[in-house]
Model the fold of this input.
Amino acid sequence: MIRAARGEWTKLRTLVSTAWLLLALAAFTAGLSALGAWSLDGRGCTGPADCDPDLTRFSLIGVYAGQVAALVLGALAATAEYATGTIHPTLMANPRRPIVLAAKATVVTGLVLGAGLLGVLGSVLAGRFLLPGKGFTPAHGYPLLSLTDGLTLRAAAGTVLYLALIALFALGAGLALRDTATTLTTVLALLFVAPMVAPFLSDPAWQRHLAQVVPTAGLAVQTTKRLAELPIAPWAGLGVLAAWAAAALVAGTARFLLRDA
Amino acid sequence: METSIDVRDLRKRYGSTVAVDGLSFEVRPGLVTGFVGPNGAGKSTTMRVILGLDAADEGSALIGGRPYRSLRAPLREVGALLDAASVHPGRRARDHLLWMAHYSGLPRRRVGEVLDLVGLSSVARRRVGGFSLGMRQRLGIAAALLGDPPVLMFDEPVNGLDPEGIRWIRELLRSMAAEGRAVLVSSHLMGELEDTADHLVVIGRGRLIADTTVRELLETASAGRVVLRTARRSEAMSVLANAGAEVAATERDTLTVTGLPAERIATLLGESGLPVSELAQHRASLEEAYMELTRDSVDYRVEVAK
Done:
């Protein structure tokens, strides 16, 4: 398993695309988050009683862009092997497929956790430095964004986990579908189905149900204000995404283990 | 002698197509075994099953007595080139070998050694996407040699190689066998193996057609045929036919005779006063013998319009 993981790591690090995707993951997450924090304007606010935006959530908004890099990385880790034919030398080097699969999942998860952590730390720092300039100062009752605050820590750590689960979801889908275009289309459609379909659902109850079952339910973990209004609880939402990732991995594993390479 | 590859009653079906249909053969160490058959005969499928990439529907394919999927360090036991295109175009040649070495716990120095061996050291840092087919073949061969294995399998290794490359690979195959390794090399052109293979496994439509040495196959194909050159062809034909031989006019002035020994032919023609400018045992080429063998098993023969 250690050898296989080392092999998978060498495989990924020797491709320029991996470095670009990890850079994009961290930079998109932190960059769009900074833009999110910068776009807020609280200079007319007298205090939380007057206006009370979820500053943590706004400061982590970049995950919407970062997740695309995470899912492309996860999908390619599987589909590029079939597109280029390197799945053959891979399985010749180690014919024990469960180990190959575990090595792949471990390396992808590790890389995305690392890049995601950088992106999220950048996001929190950006929020901490930008928000006071927009009127959200401790003097007005808005404490500086800090990971020592339990809810903010949950949001930040949860966002890093969210990115890793998205990558695993895409990896599983890639192993099940094998084709890059098909995999990316499927995963992106599932991620953006809620915002696309929701406007057509006139019944708010149905909108709520939809938000509870789609993979993006995992973003509930970013919420630090008005938790009772959420369609799904923060950790439960992340659990929904974990279930999607698990389902994709089960389907991918089944095809990987049972079918010809 | 121990067997290096042992294929036993192998059957493999893809949907409704039977790719391999009850195939059995052995590959022994110290020999180059040619694996020959027309396109679509099941050569690549058999190799994929031996390597555990595809699962057999029935039968077994063992390496040193064990299925590939149970090998602990497979690259040290078998090296294979299946498809030279199985490389990521964005990766450097050296890195392609490096990840395989890491995957199997092989020392890093092997990467440099096999690159030297196949003559790719000068382009080791170039991305594979810019490689010619010949360079990719060499890289694939380097990958097969990475673990210094006692068993080697090459699927159509001369495809895309220039004459110099073809000569190089023939010498490589010979030297690998001379070192005591078992070498299985497939080709759809028998002539490619004429000077290379010791043993031949000929298949067609997934079935075994012949499992023989090159010498035996040539002898069978040439058996009892005599080539005769004479200026008075038609008269010679009737004399020999009257003596019970089967005679075919093959070229201008040339007859191929079956059913009579050369000495008897010489005597008969001498008695009739017919001139003979050449009389010799026919020596079939490997290609000829192969055409004979596979005539009925070519899947994609072009039908000649009448």
Notes: Residues 2-258 of chain A form one domain. DSSP finds ten helices and no strands in chain A. Residues 198 and 206 of chain A are 8 Å apart (CA to CA). The mean pLDDT of chain A is 93.
